[in-house]
Amino acid sequence: MSQFQGCGTALVTPFHPDQSLDEASLRKLVRRQIEAGIHFLVPCGTTGESPTLTHAEHLRVVEITLEEAKGKVPVLAGAGGYNTAEVIALAKELEALGADGLLSVTPYYNKPTQEGLYQHYQAIAASVKVPIVVYSVAGRTGVNVEPATLRRLAEIDNIVGVKEASGNIAQQANLCATLPESFDILSGDDAITIALAGLGGKGIISVASNEIPGVMAAIAHHCLNGDFAAARALQRQWLALMEVNFIESNPIPVKAAMARMGLLQPVWRLPLVPPSDSAMAKLEAVLLSTGLIAN
Q: Measured between alpha carbons, how far is 151 from 117 in angstroms, rounded to an integer?
């Protein structure tokens, strides 16, 4: 099994009320993940509010995650953006820190062509030796990594997988049918982990596993073992949480939920703000109904 199969957590980044990095809470969160049986960790992705982290903070979050992981689970560090040269510089630093691989979101805003996407990832891959997972999330970035482009990228030795968050099941079916078996296709949406696994996907990079790491790891494990009945039973139990996590822009709801669970302070960096009263009420209702918080 590849080191980036199963369930990886797109870790949130905890902050103190004064907006500084909360290193102690981060360490506790990473330990909680490992103890719950998570398969790998993804610090400084976009769920980790990476666009608002300083360069030093980005490196520090990955460094702390690596220190706590201690080789027990792989660390797939976030290194993406719309400036290829800047991403390459960061990728080299993360590799030097000891990251096991890199998750690289497609360039956003500048909307490169498919050829531009190919050359962007090719340049990053040529700059490091560690494995790279492409992150395709057109709803956030404005650009889709098309199947033909991913097939070209899969020919590059250290481009080993894709976090597929297009929400387009037909596109995901095409990828599963046409990419090499060794290429890891991971869901970027908690709610369709099972659907993608049924087509041949290898797991999930999860938001919900910030709250319920053991459950999401179990769903991924059941899917990889072909026990879809067991996976569906857990999905039914936890679908409301997977959905309410996106009632407002991620990671607003998940951090609010984790704050109510006593895992971190309810602090975001602008332009993200706390959830609206109506969103918070819906979130709390789900947390109560699933037993994640008490009355």
A: 12
Q: Which residues pair with 76 in a beta bridge?
A: 101
Assess contact for 13 and 21: CB atoms under 8 A: yes
Both tokens of 19, joined, read 């907006």
H or E, element range at 279:
helix 277-289
DSSP code, position 21: B
pLDDT of residue 295: 83
Mean pLDDT of the chain: 98
Counting residues of the chain whose pLDDT is more than 90, the rounded percentage is 99
Catalytic residues: 135, 163
The DSSP secondary structure of 25-79, one letter per residue, reads HHHHHHHHHHHTT-SEEETTSGGGTGGGS-HHHHHHHHHHHHHHHTTSS-BEEE-
Say if CB 77 and CB 62 are below 8 A apart: yes
CB 163 within 8 A of CB 135: yes
Q: Where are the beta strands (DSSP E) in the chain?
A: 6-10, 40-42, 76-78, 101-105, 132-136, 159-164, 184-187, 203-206
The residues, any chain, with a CB within 8 Å of residue 102's CB and separated by 6 or more, are 76, 77, 78, 79, 91, 94, 95, 124, 128, 130, 131, 132, 133
In the predicted model, is pLDDT for residue 197 greater than 90?
yes
pLDDT value at position 2?
82
12-52 pLDDT, tens digit per residue, is: 999 999 999 999 999 999 999 999 999 999 999 999 999 99
**Any alpha helices (H) in 98-165, and if so which ranges?**
114-127, 138-141, 147-153
% of the chain at pLDDT higher than 70: 100
